[in-house]
Amino acid sequence: MRAMEALLAHAAQTAALEQVAGRLHWDQETMMPKGAAAQRAEEIAAMEAMLHARRTDPALAEMLEKAKPEGAVEAASLRLISRDYARATKIPAALATEMARTASLAHGVWAKARAEQDVAGFLPVLDKLIALRREEAACLSGETRGPALYDALLNDYEPDMRACDLAALFAAMRPRLVALRAAILERPAPPAITGDFDEAAQLRLTREIAVAFGYDLDKGRIDLAVHPFSSGSGCDSRITTRVARDDPFNALYSTIHEVGHACYEQNIDPRHHLTALGQGASMGVHESQSRIYENQLGRSLPFVTWLHGQMTAAFGPLSTDSPAALYAAINRVAKGYIRTEADEVQYNLHIMLRFDLEQALISGDLAVADLEAAWNDRFLADFGFAVDRPSNGMLQDVHWSAGLFGYFPTYALGNVYAGCLMQALRHDLPDLDQGLVQGDLRAPTAWLRENLQQFGRLKPPRQVIEDAIGGPVTPEPLLSYLETKFAALYDL
Amino acid sequence: MRAMEALLAHAAQTAALEQVAGRLHWDQETMMPKGAAAQRAEEIAAMEAMLHARRTDPALAEMLEKAKPEGAVEAASLRLISRDYARATKIPAALATEMARTASLAHGVWAKARAEQDVAGFLPVLDKLIALRREEAACLSGETRGPALYDALLNDYEPDMRACDLAALFAAMRPRLVALRAAILERPAPPAITGDFDEAAQLRLTREIAVAFGYDLDKGRIDLAVHPFSSGSGCDSRITTRVARDDPFNALYSTIHEVGHACYEQNIDPRHHLTALGQGASMGVHESQSRIYENQLGRSLPFVTWLHGQMTAAFGPLSTDSPAALYAAINRVAKGYIRTEADEVQYNLHIMLRFDLEQALISGDLAVADLEAAWNDRFLADFGFAVDRPSNGMLQDVHWSAGLFGYFPTYALGNVYAGCLMQALRHDLPDLDQGLVQGDLRAPTAWLRENLQQFGRLKPPRQVIEDAIGGPVTPEPLLSYLETKFAALYDL
Question: Residue A87: CB partners within 8 Å, gap ≥ 6?
Fold first, then answer.
């Protein structure tokens, strides 16, 4: 066997084992008996130790040295396998194992603290997670302080991206978002939807809409979980959702969001399944898919016009009893604590809050004991009202309990990418709205599959976006889209 | 670290990874999207290859050589780890991987063949499975033909057991079972239960009864699957069941059966969880637990007296409208094709059929092309009527599609063990029936936990039974129990 073939076979087996490890997390959130948490932590730690040993296998160094790639697929694979090997060999096995075990246990601690509004109960494990991630970042960057630490973590989610570039991007966006938000909040808010929405009917409708967006239920499934997420890849790409009786948009739009992630994974060229290329290009690119499904398509007037009919059929007459009223309710800009429920205008402000706080946590400028106050101060400053309880504040998101620092900013980056992609998509599909108004999403989802999703990791993240949009990435399309959409909605 | 401690740490990590691999199978049967079968086969093959590499890790040989056990737990662990290492090093990695991949794919082939009554569709993969298992048996035994091949496979499920010993045991039992069966079938059969039993009510009742038998739902869960099975260990011991609207005993007694397995795993001393000792002692000992829960306890008159009240509450008045009539219906001896639905008298005849056929398949005396005819001929001879379709014949059981040859006889061995255990339990718990009649199973389940389940693999299989019953194993208690019970039921 050629060294390159041996290398690909090794990577394929690693990819399969990573799928198995990922499914342990899915199971933990959806199916696991509650008494199994400690045992599950051991299982996850054992998988992580095994995967770390594979990723640092000395045989890999030899294969990497001898491998001679042929063609673009092998070249891209070699690039990614080399990168992963270089990263993995910098992290001691004991640290990787401890990180995995701590994150697994921290999840239960966070869920309990969140349920009981008990910030103090979460802080010790959060402190430990930050210490472990700082240690990891130091191993990766060779630095013990400074912005290199956060950049090293960010790089896991968004390769080739630096915090200072994101900070500049966000700084350019913020004034226009703040101005737009201020203008909107001077106008009267349209009525929100009200009513009691049968949970089973909500779940039936979310399944129908998931399928309309191209989600293949033969290669996925939808379950209930506290925090909606997508999991897996290729032919086993699962999502979760949650249902609120008084708010049908909670289940609906979190499902469309996760469907965007899952369709990306399902639509990767089958040749790349269970290989080094068989995943989304980066978290930012991933989020561009979930956000364009959820927002640019899912929250558009033509789509909502179709949705109005589906919701009326599912729930009877709505309190927002016309497509225009439903569209206004779905795109309502209002005070809210929860990032995942935020409107398109304010969402990125949530991200900027977390981005700044987590950089300060990792740099050591902010102690966990001061995090709640820092969160609450910043929230008041950015959103104009106070956090009422920790589950609406710093305990609302699962990410930090999983050790995910450097992940949040990729959400805002994904929004910027989604803005660029929507501009290109509208250019290429002039009849887009005629399809959307009938709930027919085949043209845009096919465009995204052909121009972006199919490539998996064959192209680097920024390149896959630029190739799809035929030019450079800027925040302009997103900002123009938001300003145009909300000017019409709020008569600005 | 002492060599012994390093060895135990290695074994603990292997045990955790085995739990993960086992959960892939649970997921495949209960949750997996149907389009993920091929991908799942790759995942299972990757896990199996990784586990095989761990089990044959040269570092293990060194640790085994240097390890000095202290105390009974370490001595037992060393014995089991040594045995597993000796076994694993005899199997080439490629063969282990191919076996796992073929078995995973064969499951789907079997399920389709069973649904479509298509024996021919199943034979090629069955032939391949047998060839692979023969190859495995040859590696293990050092022989290429003769009874050593089957014994090598049997040893995986029932250590220290030989087919000739089982054949002798079965030969001693068969005349009395045949005589009992003949005597019963000369008598009029009592009415079976009839009616339409709401599926949700059945599932509620099965959960209630699972809990009554001591199943801890905080450390397990119950899902629907084609074939009931138990899976996992310790704090994550899951079971599946199936529901038939016209037969409440299908869900009820398959659940009690699987609860017996799962309680065994849940009740292992927590010190042994995720160690080399953290499993049931053997398949035969495991089956003794599922069968004593299901039969000696679950199909007893006092328990059925309690169950009559529960069923009446769940379903309304029954067609068998007294405890005695329900007891007669539950223990009805009648013609039937399906092993898992067989009564206590005929069950072992099903096993003996499979035991003889699979020995012939492995020895090469029987070709797969002749298997259906051989099954059908033997069934007609043993049960007095003809198989009507393959799903009632050779396609009824999942085992062979998973490559499980040598597994079936442990079921009958488990029945013999259950007979011995029940005799000891009745001796130690003279008030047993007073509890059963109130649905209170705490005394017998505690007796089984204290005397058997807690030990896991600390003791060898035969010893754990003999210690619990305080003497040697013989078929006499089982046969006497059956003869007494059915003489009363059928007025013999």
Answer: A140, A156
Contact predicate B129/B50, CB 8 Å: no
A32 to chain B, any CB pair closer than 8 A? The answer is yes
CB contact under 8 A, A46 and B216: no
The partner residues of A165 in beta bridges, in order of sequence, read none
Under 8 Å CB-to-CB from B471, ≥6 apart: which residues?
Answer: none
Token pair listed for A148: 């290199």
pLDDT in tens, A211-263: 999 999 999 999 999 889 999 999 999 999 999 999 999 999 999 999 999 99
The β-bridge relationship of strands A222-224 and A236-241 is parallel
Distance between A337 CA and the closest CA of chain B, angstroms: 33
Instruction: Say what the pTM is.
Output: 0.89
Q: Is B96 on the interface with A (CB under 8 A)?
A: no
Would you call B6 an interface residue with chain A, using a CB distance cutoff of 8 Å?
Answer: no
3-class SS of residue A247: strand
- Per-residue pLDDT band for B178 (boundaries 50, 70, 90) equals confident
Distance CA A264, CA A280 (A): 7
- In whole angstroms, give the CA distance from residue A409 to residue A162: 11
Pairing of strands B230-233, B236-241: antiparallel
DSSP state, residue A471: S
Residue B219 and residue A43: Cβ atoms within 8 Å? no
As a whole number of angstroms, the distance between CA B326 and CA B344 comes to 16
- Does the beta carbon of B216 lie under 8 angstroms from any beta carbon of chain A? yes
From chain A, the residues in CB contact with B46 under 8 A are: 13, 16-17, 20
Q: Which residues in chain A touch residue B97, judged by CB atoms under 8 angstroms apart?
A: none
Phi-psi region of B456 (alpha: psi -120 to 50; beta: other; left: phi over 0): left
Q: What is the pLDDT of residues A342-379, one digit of tens each?
A: 999 999 999 999 999 999 999 999 999 999 999 999 99
Catalytic residues of B: 258
A contacts of B238 (beta carbons < 8 Å): 33
Cα of A299 to nearest chain B Cα, Å: 29
What domains sit in chain A, N to C, each tagged with a CATH number? 3-146 (no CATH), 163-490 (1.10.1370.30)
Nearest CA to B384 out of B359, B349, B419 is that of B349
Contact assessment for residue B162 and residue B146, using Cβ atoms and an 8 Å cutoff = no
Element (H, E) at B231: strand B230-233
In this predicted structure, what is the pLDDT of residue A331?
Answer: 97
DSSP string, B86-142: HHHTTS-HHHHHHHHHHHHHHHHHHHHHHHHT-HHHHHHHHHHHHHHHHHHHHHHHS
DSSP per-residue codes, A68-83? ---HHHHHHHHHHHHH
Q: Tell me how crowded residue A352 is: count the other CB atoms within 10 A of its CB.
A: 22
- Residue pair A449/A441 in contact by the 8 Å Cβ criterion: no
Q: In 3D, which of A277, A265, A268, A274 has the Cα closest to residue A457?
A: A277
Residue B278: HSE in the Cβ half-sphere, 13 Å Cα cutoff: 24
Quick check: helix, strand or coil at residue B162? coil
Q: Which amino acid type is present at position B251? A: A
Q: Find how far residue B479's CA is from the centre of its chain.
A: 20
Distance (Å, whole) CA A2 – CA A315: 61
Instruction: List, by residue number, the catalytic residues of A.
Output: 258
A-chain CB neighbours of B50 within 8 Å are 13, 17, 50, 54
Contact state of B47 with A234 under an 8 Å Cβ cutoff: no
The β-bridge relationship of strands B222-224 and A236-241 is unpaired
Distances (CA, A) of A216 to A275, A280, A307, B48, B447: 21, 17, 20, 29, 50
Contact B235 A38 (CB under 8 A): yes
